[in-house]
Design goal:
Distance between the termini: 107 Å
Structural class: mainly beta
Strand content: 25-35%
Radius of gyration: 32 Å
Length: about 300
């Protein structure tokens, strides 16, 4: 046997052992040794070559990436997603909120900064996968010194937002009322609990609120509000107006800039619509009412 024959024999044996060892390892139920490989992507873009042949440092496709002096880095993208840019267009974080019980099913919220470091939260209410547009006006401006905002799903179709300086909870443009009572006067006398009737989608007997002779009603909420949406089963045909008040910790105080979207031809509650007013977030206080401690609005 020549030295060449000996070399060939060892090579053949080595090949057999290399392929046989993994089989023995699997057969014996033992752990298989794995190795980690680091890829630096410091090579070149080779779009015309077979990806299996370009080596560990090169790449065949670049998508939302660009060259640097040493490697590649992410970019903000090459194609438009929305028809216009946000006023603050450095997006730091985002989240999708699902609201199964409201007219708007999906919201996308993002925290975005400008070059000066000022950050705000914007929303896009277009249903995924439609792109739509974000609001030009922020729904919240972060306090100075805020960090990256963190979003998390909250209870009852809400979203929680924290930025290191502030904590907020938001339920979309609409959220279910926490309580609904008809009362006989502006002091909350003779309350009648109709909460269950107005919190579902049914409209048969027992599943709608009839104001009737009570004439007043109180809406309760876990958070301060600036509007109430009404879906009318039977339109009011009597001339009349509605006013709105909030509980300020002592008594019911008139809201500012009240607008009755249910009014038609001098008749309130004559059509579906919103009753809106200025935000009461800095003035309203929770109210002890019928065993609850919630924000109260008298109509």
């Amino acid at each position: 046997m020549t030295s060449r024959d000996i070399n060939r024999t060892f090579i053949a044996l080595a090949a057999i052992l290399i392929f046989a060892l993994p089989i023995l390892a699997f057969g014996a139920g033992q752990n298989v040794i794995t190795f980690n490989k680091q890829y630096l992507f410091s090579g070149s873009w080779m779009p015309d070559e077979d990806p299996t042949l370009i080596g560990p440092t090169n790449f065949s496709r670049l998508r939302n990436l660009r060259y640097t002096d040493t490697s590649i880095e992410a970019t903000l993208g090459y194609s438009k997603v929305n028809s216009y840019a946000l006023p603050k267009n450095l997006i730091k974080n985002g989240h999708q909120l699902y609201c199964n019980e409201t007219d708007i099913y999906s919201y996308v919220l993002v925290q975005a900064k400008n070059s000066a470091g000022s950050s705000s939260v914007y929303i896009n209410s277009s249903s995924i996968p439609s792109q739509g547009n974000f609001t030009t006006a922020a729904i919240h401006d972060d306090a100075a010194g805020s960090g990256v905002g963190r979003f998390s799903d909250g209870p009852s179709g809400t979203i929680v937002y924290s930025n290191g300086r502030e904590n907020y909870i938001w339920g979309g443009n609409e959220t279910r009322v926490s309580g609904f009572y008809t009362v006989s006067d502006g002091n909350g006398t003779s309350p009648k609990d109709l909460t269950d009737a107005v919190r579902n989608d049914l409209d048969d007997e027992g599943n709608y609120a009839s104001i009737g002779d009570q004439r007043f009603w109180i809406v309760l909420s876990t958070r301060t509000i600036k509007a109430v949406k009404y879906t009318i089963k039977t339109a009011n045909t009597t001339n009349g107006t509605t006013t709105a008040k909030y509980w300020n910790g002592t008594d019911f105080q008139a809201v500012s800039n009240f607008n009755d979207g249910t009014e038609s031809d001098g008749k309130t509650l004559a059509q579906d619509g919103w009753m809106t007013f200025n935000s009461t977030s800095t003035t309203a206080k929770p109210h002890h009412f019928e065993g609850t401690y919630l924000y109260a609005y008298l109509f």
